[in-house]
What we know:
This is P1 family peptidase. This protein is of the alpha+beta class. Helix content is 23%, strand content 28%. 55% of the residues are buried.
Amino acid sequence: xxxxxxxxxxxxxxxxxxxxxxxxxxxxxxxxxxxxxxxxxxxxxxxxxxxxxxxxxxxxxxxxxxxxxxxxxxxxxxxxxxxxxxxxxxxxxxxxxxxxxxxxxxxxxxxxxxxxxxxxxxxxxxxxxxxxxxxxxxxxxxxxxxxxxxxxxxxxxxxxxxxxxxxxxxxxxxxxxxxxxxxxxxxxxxxxxxxxxxxxxxxxxxxxxxxxxxxxxxxxxxxxxxxxxxxxxxxxxxxxxxxxxxxxxxxxxxxxxxxxxxxxxxxxxxxxxxxxxxxxxxxxxxxxxxxxxxxxxxxxxxxxxxxxxxxxxxxxxxxxxxxxxxxxxxxxxxxxxxxxxx
Length: 342
């Protein structure tokens, strides 16, 4: 069984966040016995983000998370570093790595220039990964940066290596949708990338099909609370400002809900959206930005929901079974599907 296509909108040529021109992704994967973790980096453009920022916004759907950089992002509405994803205990190391990377290109940061706002988001991969090993180091951020590409591996890679979804193997997933806006003359791309680490098996819905109930063993308990998280990153080439991107990021929750999530108490569900259409040059005194009118945003809202749902589904289908610490195993969806009665 292949991953179904979600919704009616067409995907971009790669069906990934990299269909938005200029966006690249790099992974560093740590796969060594009880260490099953890593780092994933999303680069919004190939230039200097500190001097040429992008409009951005975030929506905290459920705030059980330990991210860094969201407060300033919310206040100023700009993105000034790549977006880094990793495990919960590695946020500090990757924050330092982000700052060092920015200093290499901008040595006056913190002196004659303002400080930089590193953006790092996390999920807890502690079921498969030995968090106490503190295996993720600053150098792993650099390794992910070194392999930035428009080809985006999915599944148990990078930050997704140790992640779990719906009691199975989760991880990195990505997707994209093309949308026509207004009269149809203007077409834009919206891409999503998720770090998927949430959900209870009984709740899994696959393109409207209650697949989790079919996969769950008869009589299996469904009383355990949902403990997990998901980071959802949306990129678009549509000309939007931070206020509009806030609205767009909120629609990621629609795609998440369609897969069966109720945003449980212990789940950190965070969405971030940015636009590559126009760069904000540091030090400029006046911004002259062309923006879509709000009444034209509905197609992008649909694309956000569809691409997030698709990215979660793609993460499940791309993942392989992973054996981690203390004999813990997360079986992949494809193996579970193979055992269903035909």
